UniProtKB/TrEMBL annotation:
Residues 420-431 have a biased composition (Polar residues). PANTHER family: SERINE_THREONINE-PROTEIN PHOSPHATASE 6 REGULATORY SUBUNIT 2, SIT4 YEAST -ASSOCIATING PROTEIN-RELATED. Residues 420-442 are annotated as: Disordered. Belongs to the SAPS family. One of its GO terms (cellular component) is cytosol. InterPro entries: SAPS. Pfam families: SAPS. It comes from Oncorhynchus tshawytscha (Chinook salmon). GO terms for molecular function: protein phosphatase binding; protein phosphatase regulator activity. This is Protein phosphatase 6, regulatory subunit 2b. Transmembrane segments: none annotated.
Length: 640
């Protein structure tokens, strides 16, 4: 085999390097040039590190290639040049990062007028990103010396490669003091404020979208890094600005003051959703959200900025941006739900989940009376969401968000009627009595059952669905979510923190009790799959399931504790069905493996004289067609 593959022969690349007049183009035509570079071929690196070669490599990745070439050939050499420059070889890194003339050539790419070639922009971003990681101090010093650097990057933010460059400056600078210095520099250049300014109705939609995604990534990266740092470390200035009431307020003003466009509303709402994210400690990190028992503390400035604009979001549900009619498998939908209203529903669910555990939000030794939930009740926003829930029968994304809203309200603890008093916040004990919330129709729980008529809606929708199915029609698309909502109501009435209050608020008690005892019990029974496995088999199936999907012990135990708090009807069927699917999947994989193995063994027996080392073309089609895929098919209708 050694002789068969000609491993004894010298590389053609070495023969080229022997020539006095060898060119960079000739070398890049060799297939093994990149491998030899990474293997630190001395003669090759000496050639590449010459000033003329480095300038030619940089010219390839920063200059548009001739248009007359075949498309597959136009960017072949620029791609190879980028791979050579980012091969993480010390000689090339030192040469490129240590000479200002070469850095100026690379930087000149940013000085081109927009739009940039997306592929060349990715080559540029990868090259300078590699230098930020490997020659950090030199490159940061060079960029800080360039006046208007940040303006040029933001001018090209509609090219996604510029997003990567900004994120590298935030996440790839080491050591910690230099990273903090870089963050302070970016904050002095008002990076956060300038990104928020780009999310404006007057800006290009692609630029708005990329600016929004960049802000979201900055928030997540900053929180993760802050969680890994020591307590006495300096705070991230970019995150502090993005979480400030002034910055969030400016974002909302851009969205709602003056012209209102769908892209601006969606991009801005994505940032708000990121700011309101609840990060689990020990897994994804935790910064402005602290979880203690069942109580959460959220940065109040975010909620204070959002609260005055809730009326604008409510109006979006009633009068969304116009969406063209949509042809679906069930006919033409004249007024689709649209992406805008779906984002509004997501934000409402996030706000209710964030503020559903205590009536007072405490952060940085400040006290903030949570008026967000009360304002949503005053506006009757939850009622509008329920209207959309039943109107858009097949929009599972909307159904899930409305289900989260209902579950969040039902999980309100008894503390929603009194301030949260803790040792860390003794001032709450001195709050005037008139400032404390009192039970009434403006509170979330009474509003859900009285103003929104939740129980009556469940009963009527269930009866209408039964009637439609009896006449040969289709089961409505929201029935699965409606079942879960009904089970959540039952669970809250039986053992929830305010079960006694819920029992008083439920209307149509006779119809409801009959529904729970008959229809709901029957559907829960149908959703439950009886398993005949032994306890040992179930343990093995569960272990295989955990290994396959990557859960760790802590996560599984945490989920197990949470499941105990939920009605058995809601999750018994789901969990047993999952185990059944896993078992079927394991059996199918075992059968397929045995069949494939038997086939291979038979093929070896039938071809004993065949040379197994002989090169041949492998045909995967036969094996692919013979596979049987065991899946549970669901139909999802997304935005209509």
């Amino acid at each position: 085999m050694f002789w068969k593959f000609d491993l004894h022969m010298s590389s053609q690349l070495e023969a080229l390097l022997e020539k006095d007049d060898v060119t960079l183009t000739e070398l890049m035509e060799e297939e093994d040039v990149l491998q030899e570079c990474k293997a630190q071929n001395h003669r090759l690196l000496v050639f590449l590190s010459q000033d003329t070669c480095m300038q030619e490599l940089l010219h390839l990745i920063t200059t548009e290639p001739p248009a007359g070439l075949e498309e597959t050939r136009r960017f072949k050499h620029p791609n190879i040049a980028c791979e050579l420059l980012t091969s993480d070889v010390g000689v090339i890194n030192d040469k490129l990062g240590g000479e200002k003339l070469l850095l100026d050539t690379l930087y000149s790419f940013l000085e081109q007028p927009p739009p940039l070639n997306p592929l060349l922009a990715s080559f540029f971003s990868k090259t300078i990103g590699n230098l930020i990681t490997r020659k950090t101090e030199q490159v940061i010093s060079f960029l800080r010396g360039k006046e208007g650097f940040l303006g040029l990057v933001l001018n090209h933010i509609n090219t996604s490669a510029m997003m990567d460059l900004l994120l590298r400056l935030i996440s790839c600078v080491e050591p910690a003091p230099l990273r903090q210095d870089t963050l302070n520099w970016l904050n002095e250049e008002q990076l956060a404020q300038r990104l928020i300014e780009l999310i404006h109705p007057g800006k290009d939609e692609e630029k708005q979208s990329n600016a929004s995604q960049t802000v979201c990534d900055i928030i997540r990266l900053s929180r993760d890094q802050a969680n890994q740092l020591q307590e006495n470390s300096e705070a991230d200035p970019l995150l502090a600005v993005l979480e400030s009431q002034e910055c969030v307020g400016q974002l909302l003003d851009n969205m709602f003051v003056g012209e209102r466009t769908e892209s601006c509303v969606i991009c801005g709402t994505q940032i708000l959703l990121t700011l309101l994210e609840i990060r689990r400690p020990g897994v994804e990190g935790m910064l402005d959200v602290c979880v203690q028992g069942h109580e959460r503390c959220v940065n109040s400035s975010i909620l204070q900025a959002i609260q005055p604009h809730l009326t604008h979001y409510h109006q979006l549900l009633l009068d969304p941006p116009r969406v063209t009619p949509m042809l679906t498998s069930l006919g033409v939908l004249e007024v689709p739900l649209g992406n805008c209203r779906l984002h509004v529903a997501r934000l409402m669910a996030s706000l209710l989940q964030t503020t559903n555990t205590s009536y007072y939000i405490c952060c940085n030794n400040t006290i903030y009376n949570n008026t967000v939930t009360l304002e949503l009740c005053r506006l009757n926003t939850i009622n509008i969401l329920l209207d959309l829930f039943f109107k858009y029968t097949w929009n599972n994304f909307l159904h899930f968000q409305v289900e989260l809203c209902v579950a969040a309200i039902l999980s309100h603890s008894a503390q929603e009627q009194r301030p949260l008093v803790t040792q860390e916040n003794p001032r709450l004990q001195q709050e005037p009595q008139e400032k404390q919330a009192s039970p009434g129709p403006t509170l979330p729980l009474p509003s859900l059952f009285q103003d929104c008529r939740l129980v009556l809606r469940i009963l009527e929708a269930w009866e209408e669905n039964d009637k439609m199915q009896a006449e040969g029609g289709m089961r409505r698309g929201y029935m699965g979510h409606l079942t879960r909502i009904a089970n959540t109501v039952v669970c809250s009435m039986e053992k929830g923190p305010v079960h006694s209050q819920i029992k008083l608020l439920v209307d149509c008690k006779g119809r409801w009790e009959t529904f729970v005892d008959q229809a709901l019990t029957e559907i829960n029974r149908k959703n439950t799959v009886d398993l005949t496995f032994s306890d040992y088999q179930i343990q093995q199936i569960t272990a295989n399931f955990v290994d396959q999907f990557g859960f760790n012990d802590d996560e599984f135990s945490e989920h197990g504790d949470n499941i105990k708090l939920v009605n058995r009807y809601s999750y018994a069927g789901i969990y047993t069905h999952t185990l059944w699917c896993v078992c079927m999947h394991v059996q199918a994989k075992t059968a397929a493996f045995e069949a494939c193995t038997k086939e291979k063994i038979q093929s070896f027996d039938d071809n004993e004289e065949e040379d197994i080392w002989e090169e041949r073309e492998i045909n995967y089609t036969t094996h692919t067609k013979s596979r049987t895929r065991y899946t549970n098919t669901h139909t999802f209708t997304h935005l209509y």
